């Protein structure tokens, strides 16, 4: 089957319409019958799949591109895309836009074109390169494993005793470190009469970086025009970013209403 690929020209300027030799379906590049889980190049697809993830994790673009190409051309595109999608949640720093790129490349390769076609292979290479160039991090996987083990140790602690290790929030109780969470959006906050004033001056604060100039201008004007009469101290506090080293401490009501 002739692939839909761009034409090339030989050294003499003539149009080259021949495609590079490739494995026939069911055979390796050498023409031997492929074994179970064998790629066209004669590799074990589990090994190549593992190589792909380790390569993007270590930002080795050349190896990542080859591994993606080998899986795609060998009929294991499903394995390739599964591995790349796993990478963006297991080995990628949160917030990297490459996660959306991988999804788009997969959509093109599998829904618009054939996964092992020339265009499908280009998508595979693009996705692998995008992943290899992104900022790798094991933060999500490390957090999951850490929280899981803490939960086990916490559950093993005798009733009434402090566990040897605990979650970063320990117990969520009104009056504690995270008292600000008990606003009008929780049952406890509603019972305490914490309405709009409490939420606007405490629960809606951001940080540690200050919100944008326009956002702060809109917020101050909206609060000034609302039915709630805020003091200048409350307005200033609502717009001030939380402290980076202490994001949960909030002043008493009396401090803001003076």
What is the number of beta strands?
2
> What is the string of SSEs from the N terminus onward?
EEHHHHHHHHHHH
CATH first level of the largest domain: Mainly Alpha
**Arithmetic mean pLDDT:** 84
What is the molecular shape? elongated
Q: With helices defined by DSSP (H or I, 4 residues minimum), what is the helix count?
A: 11
Percent of residues in helical segments? 40-55%
What is the topology, as strand order, of the major beta sheet?
Answer: 1-2
Region (Disordered): 1-42, 186-215, 236-258
Biased composition (Basic residues): 192-203
GO molecular function: DNA binding
InterPro entries: DNA_pol3_clamp-load_cplx_C
Overall description:
This protein has 258 residues and is mainly α. The chain folds into 2 domains: 126 residues, Zinc Finger, Delta Prime, domain 3; 85 residues, no CATH class. Helix content is 50%, strand content 2%. The chain has 11 helices and 2 strands, in the order ββααααααααααα. Strands 1-2 form a two-stranded antiparallel ribbon. Strand 1 and strand 2 form a beta hairpin. Helix 3 packs antiparallel against helix 4. The longest helix is centred in the middle third of the chain and has 18 residues. It is elongated and about 85 Å long. The protein starts with 7 loop residues before the first strand and ends with a helix. About 7% of the residues have low confidence. InterPro entries: DNA_pol3_clamp-load_cplx_C. One of its GO terms (biological process) is DNA replication. GO terms for molecular function: DNA binding.
């Amino acid at each position: 089957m002739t692939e839909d690929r761009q034409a090339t020209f030989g050294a003499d300027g003539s149009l080259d319409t021949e495609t590079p030799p490739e494995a026939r379906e069911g055979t390796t590049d050498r023409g031997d019958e492929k074994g179970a889980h064998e790629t066209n190049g004669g590799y074990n697809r589990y090994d190549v799949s593992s190589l792909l993830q380790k390569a993007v994790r270590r930002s080795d673009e050349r190896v990542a591109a080859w591994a993606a190409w080998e899986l795609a051309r060998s009929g294991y595109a499903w394995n390739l895309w599964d591995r790349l999608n796993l990478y963006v949640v297991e080995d990628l720093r949160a917030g990297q836009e490459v996660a959306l790129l991988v999804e788009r490349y997969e959509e093109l390769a599998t829904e618009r074109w054939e996964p092992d076609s020339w265009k499908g292979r280009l998508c595979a290479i693009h996705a692998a390169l995008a992943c290899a160039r992104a900022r790798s991090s094991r933060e999500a996987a490390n957090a999951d494993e850490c929280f899981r083990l803490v939960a086990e140790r916490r559950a093993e602690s005798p009733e009434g005793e402090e566990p040897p290790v605990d979650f970063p929030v320990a117990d969520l109780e009104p009056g504690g470190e995270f008292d600000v969470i008990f606003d009008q959006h929780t049952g406890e906050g509603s019972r305490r009469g914490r309405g709009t004033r409490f939420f606007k001056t405490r629960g809606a604060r951001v940080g540690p970086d200050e919100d944008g100039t326009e956002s702060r201008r809109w917020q101050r004007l909206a609060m000034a025009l609302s039915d709630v009469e805020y003091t200048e101290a409350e307005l200033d506090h609502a717009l001030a970013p939380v402290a980076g080293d202490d994001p949960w401490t909030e002043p008493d009501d009396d401090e803001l209403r003076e």
